[in-house]
């Protein structure tokens, strides 16, 4: 079976080397040696000013919303993973959906201003498939209206925009280190803030609010990364260049050999160093998508309808009609993309798709 993704696993002896350090230290959690080491290495690798590692990629969204949204209205995208909208509602805020750009697939910045009300507190936008939002326009809107900006950058590890880490934009950026991501810790994530005061609040919020063992800065939860998770991250990180090179080859193959007469592909924003995180194709109709999906599955090739459905159509987060998002969500399919995908498999995938759409 060829799945849409496959977890990159470093040589087990290299992972075990880091695990052995945790065993020797007899320290498995509470910001041990491996977590601290991984944080410093990632700061250097990503060229970011601050980072807090977390036990998954959703907790950072929840913490950021808890600190910045004040139970208000949060302007967000309907085209994202469900965690984006669910986190807003979980933190007793109200999602206000704004439609997306039909080519970049990120929130349509030209429609944000009209969605702002006196109850709006935050703009929460997603860098979809690692493709940056129009961060300059969003920053200008936020500054004009005294709003905070949170970026769901779950897919954006290693992405640079205008020679700057994508994590350096917004008040808070968050990332996922789930096993399916480019860089991973099995489960895990991170949050980033340039402002030192806000970074301090993010930090203590992910550790029960602690200020030392017996005092507290304020309210917090348990969002800490374990030493075993950090061990995986330390073992994976040295392979990032190999991972990116392998994924780029797959993307280049799709770009070259797929017939785009009846398909659309993601348009990457200008001045972006992309990370080849996903390969979405957009069909002319849902019927075409379902036909291709069924054909691929008959050959044990398992793509993914990602993101589907449009979040404004979910029962727990109803919103106004979002024509572009709903259309894209019904017609987008992510193709297999991972390290180790063979040319023969790519040939089969492309041939089956081209036969159906031509």
From the structure above, extract its key features.
358 residues; alpha/beta; seven-stranded mixed β-sheet; three-stranded antiparallel β-sheet; 11 helices; globular
Structure report:
The chain is globular, with a radius of gyration of 21 Å. The two termini are 25 Å apart. It is α/β, with parallel strands linked by helices and 358 residues long. It has helices at residues 12-25, 33-46, 59-68, 82-90, 135-145, 196-205, 227-236, 240-257, 286-298, 323-331, 343-357, and strands spanning 2-3, 52-54, 73-76, 94-97, 120-126, 148-152, 160-161, 164-165, 172-176, 189-192, 263-265, 272-273, 280-283, 301-302, 332-334.
Give the % helix.
Answer: 25-40%
Derived structural class: alpha/beta
Main β-sheet description = 7 strands, mixed
Report the average pLDDT across residues: 97
User: Strand arrangement, largest sheet?
Assistant: 2-10-9-6-5-3-4
Q: Ranges with pLDDT <50 over ≥5 residues?
A: none
CA radius of gyration: 21 Å
What sort of overall outline do the alpha carbons produce when their principal axes are compared? Answer: globular
Separation of termini?
A: 25 Å
How many strand units?
A: 15
Content of β-strand: 5-15%
Our count of helices gives 11
N-to-C SSE series? EHHEHEHEEHEEEEEHHHEEEHEHEH
